[in-house]
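Amino Acid Chain and Its Fold in Token Form
===========================================
Scope: a single protein chain, as residues and as a discrete description of its fold.
Amino acid sequence: labelled as such and written in the usual single-letter residue code.
Position: the record begins directly beneath this header, with no further notes in between.
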Amino acid sequence: VEGIVSREILTRADASDLIVMGKLGEHADWRSALLGHNVETVTRSSHHPVLVCPEKFRQPTRVLIAYDASSHAYDAMHVAGEVSVTLNIPLTVVSAHLKKRLNAELSRQAYLKRYGADARTVASTKHSEEAILSIEKEDDHGLIVMRAYGHSRILELVLGSTTEHVMRQTESAVLLHR
């Protein structure tokens, strides 16, 4: 197939349930914590879930779900619950939104109980990306599930993107839910 890689992937994505990509592109040796252009384009433009894998794959031992009490995060928790039960590995739900913590905590526990997932919840006072990355590293999860990009492109340009920051910094695979 000839053409622009990201455009070809997005064109063929409608025939797929999941897009799987490596985190770094062909010039990975020349940059440190940057995402490849194709990964960034596909993750921002795809209407399908995207699994972004690190250079060295490792079997997930736990699933971490980044939960911010939004409807999209609630849907992503459904995916994380299914992955946890299917792979028979524990699930960690991380939330850094203090205002919604108590109601979200009760909601998560009730929701995940339906799946029979071995789940624990962690509420953090850190910024979202710091909470996600520190819990992931502490327990060596191997897979992070999160919603793909929560704000408009303009707002993310000014404030930065939690999704992008986590993808750049983690050594785990990241499953972006749409």
About this structure: Helices lie at 5-12, 37-45, 71-87, 101-113, 128-139, 153-159, 162-169. Confidence is low (pLDDT under 50) at residues 154-159. The longest helix spans residues 71-87. DSSP finds seven helices and seven strands in the chain.
